[in-house]
Each structure stands twice: as structure tokens, then as C-alpha cells.
Amino acid sequence: MKKITVETKVKGSIDKIWEFWTKAEHIVNWNFAIPEWHCPQAENNLEVGKSFRFRMEARDGSMGFDYEGTYTQIEPKTTIEYALGDERKVSIDFKKMGNAVSIVETFEVEDTNTLEQQQQGWQAILDNFKSYVESN
Question: The Activator of Hsp90 ATPase homologue 1/2-like C-terminal domain covers which part of the protein (predicted)?
């Protein structure tokens, strides 16, 4: 299966970055690709075999979906891997780099959107995360 990788470097401690990535009260503030969308609900059970569900919706209420998966591997402050409901796999690696953390996210592509749309959407969410962490 084809995979796409997106990445960023976020200024901050690994402790803060891990917390902001994994806690529902933070996820709702950054987990969307464009300003016209938002993430009004997030549930995250960060344990292998447990699941997460993030509600993503257009702010005008015209459309939305649940982004859901099950964790397959967790190495605290280092790696998160999960399988989505359609069995596509995602991995996220966190690596301390001085006063910042490199985040590399690799995901198996889906058939609905173009590769470019998928890459841009996932990168935009990662960029939102960076902005959220660095401004809080």
C-alpha cells in the first residue's frame, strides 16, 4: 500500500508536545486541516488495543465525520502506531532535537482523495499542531 509522510519540528519540551498530542482537551484545538473546520469532540484511550475517536466537522454544520482507530503500538514520548477503521496504518515518531521535537507522521493512503490532497490535509493538521503548541 502507498504511504505518505508529513513532518514538522515543534519548539518545546517532549513532555509538553506529548501531552498536547495525546490529551483530548488539546486535540480539539488543533485537529483540523482548514479554518472552516473544527474538532468539537475528542476521545482518546492511549493504550495498545484501545481506541480513539475525533469528531471533525465543518463549522457551518454542512458535513462531518468521525476519525477513529485502535492503537497497535505506543512507546511513550517516542512512537504511536494505530490502525484506522478501514485498516490503514499510521505511525507517528517523536524525536527530541535540542529545544524542539521532530514529528514524522506516515500514513497509508485512501482511495477517495488524491495523493496531493491527502498530503496537504495531513500536513495542514500537523502545522496546526505546531502553531497550537508554540503559542500555548
Answer: 13-134
